[in-house]
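Risk register update: the risk of archive-format incompatibility is retired. Evidence:
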Amino acid sequence: MKIIVDAMGGDFAPKVNVDGAIDALREFADVEIALAGPQALVEETIDAYADKQALASVRDRLSVVDAPEVISPEEHPVMALRRKKNSTFCVGMDIVRRKEAQAFVSAGSTGALMAGAMFKIGRIKGVARPALATLLPVPNRPMLLVDAGANVDCKPEWIAQFALMGSAYMRRVMDVADPQVGLVNIGAEAAKGNEQAQKTYELMARPGQPFSFCGNIEARDTLAGKCDVLAADGFVGNVVLKNTEGVISALFGMLKGGLMASTKGKVAALLAKDTFRSLKRSFDSTEVGGAPLLGVEGAVIKAHGNSNARAIFCAIRQAKRVVDGGLVDVIREEVARLAASDAAQAGQENA
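Archived output:
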């Protein structure tokens, strides 16, 4: 398979993107990578890779696609895509649209990634809105939050579709046999929440949905392991995501401060060092690599803007898993099947 990596996306481009891509090629023998960016700069960065022998072993599977223009996070996404036809986003996504590559990975502008995927690659037929999905750290099981911020104003039908796509992702990429899908709400009862939440609940609980709905999930239970997919509109989903990141960061900071405040605490920290290190790794977003954009005709992965080489490697690994799992085909089939079922039901009701 071929994966396009935006060499200029993120805070530490192009070095970490190039290093992460080469590391991925060393790990996955069935992957080819094309780095999109200014040709001379990217070639120079490749040549500076520390392990020359390792670079030589994968060089035949690594290419550069000249994309001299870069879209920054400060630019208006749609306007920038229109003006900068030779940007890494436009050039890379055009390759995916032409089916010359199966995936696109970027740590650059989220807005440009969303707009480019919509207008360059295109939505899967029947998908109302693509959605960003991100894995949250839950004890003993991964949990997918969708939408994590792509669509802040949503119709109930869109959120139910996010649930469908999230369930497909957990089955085909994370190997969860029967993902349980929950809806973020202010209470567990079906009648809780605003009008949007109540209508979404009705849709998700309707017989015939291609996912297992387990009901409402309150904010305090989002990390309790009660479901495999957490569905929400992008506004609520992004609040849940950022709040989770903030709370985890604050807790680790308070724990470190408390332990370092006394000799006993320092001794306890030393004895529990391996446990703390393992716990910190379980909450490390670097290992996730990025958020898949579900609902477009290709594997599109948004890596964090402050990604290091390891995070880029993990984002490429995630793109490979999406392609290997045939996720785009599964979403396409399930959306079409549900639409046909809804049309048949509507015909019976009107008869």
